[in-house]
């Protein structure tokens, strides 16, 4: 039976390990970066085991490289499955991207060409991962800064078709939608409207940097007003989806992140109350 998870969460970061151990916080669940815990022992696993006693968790990966033309890393998949068995997460996610080829890892989340050939390439790879994990895989839309000349469809059309063909589910990063919409000059509401309602299991919110005519997805800033507005539109469109804040750099005290999360919670609950009235 699949686990259910609701409410509002944060990404678990090493800077906040002791905070979560020493006192309770107004957080419904935590997201861990899978690669941080693919180790045999030590402090990461100690804190992971200790904190998961009190908080439900989900797992989020950064190195699956589902969109690569190279074979999937079977050793990595075995490690990932062992971590799933240890953590018992509500779900497992990674990014709809590629990260390198051969022995070259670019340590970046690179966008895919949105073509029929890419969809055919992805179908058996998603199936392989889902079989290895014993559950559906959530895939996250990435922010991007370039397009491919080969593109045959929009990103949102590509995602819809991938869900239909593979049965994968979605981690909808609202900040990434906004960043890409500015960089590529499309209406972010069009992207949100196209998302298959029953496939979106989780939402990410984060901050970014402005560089004049383009944005860089940095996860080192508070959520800006435009992303908050797009999140409100998303809640109206998709309803109550488990939502979390990602912060990967310039990490503030936990209390500051909790305050930001409380703002997200209040906004979502206000929309739900208005819709129920």
TrEMBL record:
<protein>
    <recommendedName>
        <fullName>UPF0276 protein CAPSK01_002209</fullName>
    </recommendedName>
</protein>
<dbReference type="Pfam" id="PF05114">
    <property type="entry name" value="MbnB_TglH_ChrH"/>
</dbReference>
<comment type="similarity">
    <text>Belongs to the UPF0276 family.</text>
</comment>
<dbReference type="InterPro" id="IPR007801">
    <property type="entry name" value="MbnB/TglH/ChrH"/>
</dbReference>
